[in-house]
Amino acid sequence: MSDRKHLILLVDDDKAVRDSLQFVLELEGLSVRVHNRSDGLLADPELEHAGCVVLDDHNRGQDGFEVLNQLKERDVAVPSIMLVGHLTKRVRELANAAGVSLILEKPLMDNTLRDHIRAILTPGCMSEGSRRSCA
Fold first, then answer.
1. Which CATH number is 74's domain given?
2. Terminal-residue alpha carbon distance, the chain
3. How many domains would you assign to the chain?
4. C-alpha count within 13 angstroms, C-beta hemisphere, residue 2
5. Which of 10, 17, 48, 87 is deepest in the core (most CB within 10 A)?
6. Element at 28 (helix H, strand E)
């Protein structure tokens, strides 16, 4: 899984979170590029070719929803996973409006993030607008 299609771009302003998620995902053989700010993601030359973007809903600079709205404006269609501290109806509405593929509530348990990324990277496992993934 070394091609760009399997590149995971991760944005989180918490270094410990970035480092631990990068470590876990790379152990699984995924290629991961991390950014501490949204502008780093938006300037990433591989953005349009990434297999998945993982964003925290609260980052310095711009929140994850603003970033995804900017991607929509640029016509960049990359599957996205939004990590949220507390999942509310309002957060779900914002995520749906921004085109989020999946919302995961922190703290992440077990292999949840890895399993959902694998599902996104596997053709046919995640359908448009669906929250289901392959088993």
1. 3.40.50.2300
2. 19
3. 1
4. 0
5. 10
6. none
* Residue entry with tokens 């991607």: 71
How far is it, in rounded angstroms, from Cα 47 to Cα 36?
15
DSSP state of 106: S
Backbone φ and ψ of 8, nearest 5°: -105, 125
Would you give per-residue pLDDT tens digits along the chain (135 residues)? 345 568 999 999 889 989 999 999 999 899 999 999 888 999 999 999 999 999 988 766 678 888 998 999 999 999 999 999 889 999 999 888 888 999 999 888 888 899 999 999 987 665 444 444 453
| Domain range for 26 | 4-121
Alpha carbon distance 43, 16 (integer Å): 22
**Residue 25 maps to a domain:** yes
Q: From edge to edge, which strands make up the β-sheet containing 102-105?
A: 31-35, 7-11, 52-56, 80-84, 102-105
